[in-house]
Design goal:
Mean pLDDT of chain A: 93
GO molecular function (chains A, B, C, D): hydrolase activity
Radius of gyration of chain A: 16 Å
Largest interface: A-B, 48 and 48 residues
Structural class of chain A: mainly alpha
Protein name (chains A, B, C, D): MazG nucleotide pyrophosphohydrolase domain protein
Low-confidence stretches of chain A: none
Number of domains of chain A: 1
InterPro entries (chains A, B, C, D): MazG-like_dom (IPR004518), MazG-related_YvdC (IPR011411)
Shape of chain A: globular
Oligomer: homotetramer
Keywords (chains A, B, C, D): Hydrolase
Number of helices of chain A: 4
CATH class of chain A: Mainly Alpha
């Protein structure tokens, strides 16, 4: 099973996800498959948040924990970044450089 | 402006996002606002991936870089985790403990 | 319970959804609530499609029928159109007028 | 160019979309492609709603009209229903039969 160091960086998480996918047979899933899965997890995250926000729920439907759903979304982010050979940390730094120039009204 | 240490952990990113939101006036945005924004960024990520995958595009529409869109989704993940006082690293470890028990067919 | 005429138009569906929401206590849900719900249903649609496409599934997780999920997404489209006093049929005609001018490469 | 009758039903819209896709070269797009496009349009719908809801916007980014984005989401619903030989009207009736039995708390 893949391991994470004590204070893992984004690169450590990306390597973990890469190895995890090989072990669980997900490595062959395409970029489009991962987008489908990511969209699914976003829906599950919204559902967990809906429950936390006190919106009406069908008591019979499965609702995950917000932490679990955030983690699943993060896993698919790493999986997509890996498929495009992107370093999430560098992508964050680059986007923040752009975001600092932007104005919001 | 917030700073990131040399080898930032997920907790460092969450603190950075928290400070960044205060500086740019986003701290008052609600959980539902952040879900709307997250859904928007997922759409932009899908669009950037669509272009990379060679699907037909309207040459006049704005298309972001995949790295930028992954970074934006990650920022909103941190923003949502912060609003629920969740540690993303711990959420990842907890979910992986569950995922290791699961079967996929 | 609301009814639909024999050959319902989009306007008939929008009226049905409006009445249905009143009866089930959803009329007070805000636009942002409906977006959260729409995002959730998109995730469930993706999950049903994932299963149909033969992607690996956790046999223990609930998976809906594609028709059911398409219907739920359509219901939320009507609910959002109603909240902005938009006629979906007119919106369709207007957008197709624009789409006919567009080029895709 | 495809046409719609005076008071089009959901089946009329599905036929229109089917013919429109052939004319514009989209008929070969797969189910997963359509999910990617649907996710993209949901993001654009959320962005248009964000603007209408008065949330901070980057004045330089493209924002569509809510009616246009609702129409685009509806088009992709029809395109997905067509690819699974599903009649949206029947799917709506079937799901409402189920929804009437459900409780929300």
């Amino acid at each position: 099973m893949p391991d994470l160091p004590a204070t893992p960086t984004l690169a450590d998480f990306q390597s973990y996800v890469s190895e995890m996918e090989r072990e669980r047979g997900f490595a062959s899933q395409t970029v489009k498959d991962k987008c489908l899965l990511l969209g699914e997890e976003i829906g599950e995250l919204f559902k967990a948040i809906r429950k936390a926000e006190g919106l009406a729920m069908d008591p019979q439907s499965q609702v995950g924990e917000i932490g679990d759903e955030l983690a699943d979304v993060f896993i698919y982010l790493c999986a997509l970044a890996n498929r495009f050979d992107l370093n999430l940390e560098q992508a964050f730094l680059d986007k923040e450089t752009k975001n600092k120039q932007r104005k919001w009204q």
